[in-house]
Design a protein that fits this description.
By secondary structure, the protein is of the alpha+beta class. It is built from two helices and seven strands, in the order αβββββββα. The relative contact order is 0.20. Bound molecules: nickel (II) ion.
C-alpha cells in the first residue's frame, strides 16, 4: 500500500522518533509499504516520520545511484533503532533531495564515513562501516529520526 508522505512543515518531522521492539504491530507490512511508497515516489530512502510515524525505522534502496556510484548497486536495507556510533573527520559534499521537500535539492556537507549500529528487519543486530553514497543516504534518513531535515544543515 502506498502511504501518504508528509511535507516539510508537518510537526512530526521535528520530533525525535521513538525506538521500537519486535512486538511493534504490523511491522513487516509497514516495512513493505514503506518500500512500495519509496519506489512509487522514486526515492532512495524513506524514514518512518515521513509517513507520520514517529518511530526509529527507515528503509533504503540506493540502487538508482549505481551508474555514478557502483557501490550503490543492490544496496537495499532496513534500519531499526539505528545509532551512528562513529563519524569520520573527512567530509564530502553532495546534492541531496528529500521526498518531504519535492522539487528542491541543495548541497550538504556530511562526514564521508560512518559506523552504524542497527537492527535489521529480523531484529538481528549489526555494526557496520559505510562510506560514499551509502553513508550519505543513511545519514540523510537518520536525520529524519532526530527531527531534522537536510535543509537544517544547509548554510542560509
Ligand atoms: Ni528526506
Amino acid at each position: 500500500m502506498i502511504l501518504p508522505v508528509v511535507a516539510y512543515g508537518h510537526p512530526v518531522l521535528k520530533h525525535v522518533a521513538e525506538e521500537i521492539d519486535q512486538d511493534y504491530p504490523g511491522l513487516q507490512q509497514l516495512i513493505a509499504d514503506m518500500f512500495e511508497t519509496m519506489y512509487h515516489s522514486e526515492g532512495v530512502g524513506l524514514a518512518a516520520p515521513q509517513i507520520n510515524k514517529s518511530i526509529r525505522l527507515f528503509v533504503i534502496d540506493a540502487d538508482p545511484f549505481h551508474e555514478t556510484y557502483p557501490e550503490a548497486k543492490g544496496f537495499k536495507k532496513v534500519f531499526i533503532n539505528p545509532e551512528i556510533v562513529e563519524v569520520s573527520e573527512e567530509t564530502w559534499t553532495f546534492r541531496e533531495g528529500c521526498l518531504s521537500l519535492p522539487d528542491m535539492n541543495e548541497e550538504v556537507v556530511r562526514p564521508s564515513k560512518i559506523v552504524v549500529n542497527y537492527l535489521d528487519e529480523n531484529f538481528v543486530e549489526h555494526e557496520e562501516e559505510f562510506d560514499g553514497i551509502k553513508a550519505r543516504v543513511i545519514q540523510h534518513e537518520y536525520d529524519h529520526l532526530e527531527g531534522k531535515v537536510y535543509v537544517d544543515r544547509v548554510a542560509p
